[in-house]
Design a protein that fits this description.
By secondary structure, the chain is an all-alpha fold. It has two domains: 425 residues, Growth Hormone, Chain: A (Up-down Bundle), CATH 1.20.1250; 56 residues. The two termini are 17 Å apart.
Length: 501
């Protein structure tokens, strides 16, 4: 299989002594990787709270406003598989550092934007560099921590960051917008990236194995990127257009068709972009599906609960962000406990199933809110339950999704995890927004639009989305529980430490 081109010029330090020094720095490396991952994840939500201020400052339309968010998701989601394979082929350290440097540069451009065009270009470019950075970060983690016990702790921390980053983004966006300026929601990435780049440059070493010069699967890359772009674009259009619009179903059909072509090409290619062996393993396939379904359901929490807190309970942007922190706390507890204590004893199957069922219970509970509810009696405790459930399920799924994959496939296996999250989030955005809008229309049909009715209709739309999110989590618990193998996953040394950076 394809190996890094840097293997043609091995480093003189690639001996046992260097490997020991590299191993000794593994927890510092985790800190660097975690910081980079936090930057990528929170950037999906940090601009949401800043959009009204940015719109007023730059004077763009409501139609253009949604594309500030969508431009990032489009580039990120459609290029992740390519970014993962580039990391495999040309070195994960190089991909990681280039991704950080590029992300910092385009974030600075976005913060200095003098119009919507400049801002949209910067957001799309952020997605491009995130697609290179995110799979490199996860594959570095995968190949750095090979001891099962330490791997569990590392993935618990990483999973907590991945699951809570969106909520942290809401809080940070509120703080920066209220006390500084909306532009700092872009500029702050430069601080994250510079710190992570400095740490990565010092701590990481390129340690490729020898092998032939790799080849990039160009037809597969084009088919995968075009298919994922069409899917994300179609679901993005569903937020503003009807599902019967050609701009929705046309792109969705085109996306499915291109992905079908991609599968055919992968089975015929000597150097596939995404080898089918990565997907067809039951544990990895079940983990990818779990990440996808959790991302679909998670959207309801961050979007509709933010609406409820600000529009119905009157919370400020900062207070809204703080309101999510109990969920972040329980998510971190669930994630670190699941991978360090529970996964080595029980395996991923019961944890993913129990975690998604727990999240479903929390979503059912929060769907009982009404116009008289408060944060304390209607939101706080179910939110904590959802966080605990997501932590229990997400961290083990991420760990198993990259376990025992061949060294040459670590990047693309990691990219598939991120792709499942991005596509799941896009589908959740479109699907749950449509269900919420239909619920509002049904609730207000034939009634006089009084303030009380409008408040009741908005809460009804949120609870409808919460209910459907619970259904998605519950279905995921059953499906993934059947797909994942029972028992404790056995880590093999298919990815020797000498390959890891």
């Amino acid at each position: 299989m394809a190996q890094s081109t840097a293997a043609l010029a091995p480093r003189p330090e690639a001996g046992p002594g260097h490997a020991d020094r590299q191993h000794a720095r593994r927890w510092l490396i985790l800190g660097v990787i975690g910081l980079a991952q936090l930057m990528v994840v929170l950037d999906a939500t940090i601009v949401n709270i800043a959009l009204p201020s940015a719109q007023q400052d730059l004077g763009f339309s409501n139609e253009a406003r949604q594309w500030v968010v969508t431009a990032y998701a489009l580039a990120f989601g459609s290029l992740l598989l390519l970014g993962g394979r580039v990391a495999d082929l040309f070195g994960r350290r190089l991909a990681f550092l280039v991704g950080l440097a590029g992300f910092a540069a385009v974030s600075a451009i976005g913060g200095a934007a003098n119009g919507i065009e400049m801002l949209l270009v910067a957001r799309a470019a952020q997605g491009v560099f995130a697609a290179l950075l995110a799979p490199a970060a996860l594959s570095l983690l995968t190949t750095t921590f090979t001891d099962p016990k330490e791997r569990g702790k590392a993935f618990g921390i990483f999973g907590a960051i991945a699951g809570s980053g969106a909520a942290i983004g809401l809080l940070l966006g509120g703080v920066l917008t209220e006390y500084l300026d909306w532009r700092w929601c872009m500029f702050v990435n430069v601080i994250f990236a510079v710190l992570a780049f400095a740490g990565g440059a010092v701590l990481l070493r390129e340690r490729p194995v020898t092998g032939p010069r790799p080849k990039l699967d160009v037809p597969g890359t084009v088919a995968a990127s075009a298919g994922l772009f069409a899917l994300v674009y179609g679901f993005a259009n569903a937020e503003s257009d009807s599902w019967s619009s050609v701009s929705v179903w046309g792109f969705l059909l085109a996306g499915v068709a291109m992905l079908a072509v991609f599968v055919v090409l992968q089975n015929r290619s000597a150097h596939p972009l995404l080898p089918m062996r990565v997907l067809l393993d039951r544990d990895r396939g079940g983990s990818y599906l779990a990440m996808f379904l959790m991302s679909v359901g998670m959207f309801a929490i961050f979007l509709f609960l933010t609406f409820y807190l600000q529009l119905n309970l009157g919370f400020s942007p900062i207070t809204s962000g703080v309101a999510f922190m109990p969920m972040v706390a329980t998510l971190m507890i669930g994630a670190t406990s699941a991978t360090s204590v529970l996964l080595p004893r029980f395996g991923a199957r019961p944890l993913v199933g129990l975690g998604m069922l727990t999240a479903a219970v929390g979503m059912v509970w929060v769907s009982w809110i009404d116009v008289q509810s408060t944060y304390l009696n209607g939101v706080l405790f179910p939110l904590m339950i959802v966080g605990l459930g997501l932590g229990l399920a997400m961290a083990p799924a991420m760990s198993v999704a990259t376990m025992n994959v061949a060294a040459a496939d670590a990047g693309v296996a990691s990219a598939t995890v991120n792709t499942a999250q991005q596509i799941g989030g896009s589908i959740g955005t479109a699907l749950l927004s449509t269900l919420a809008a239909n619920a509002t229309a049904s609730f207000t049909a034939g009634k006089a639009p009084t303030p009380q009715l409008i408040a009741e209709a908005s809460v009804h739309s949120y609870t409808t989305a919460f209910g459907w999110s619970a259904v998605i989590f519950a279905a995921g618990a059953v499906i993934c529980g059947l797909l994942l193998r029972p028992g404790v996953p056995v880590h093999t040394e298919s990815s020797p430490p000498a390959v890891h950076m």
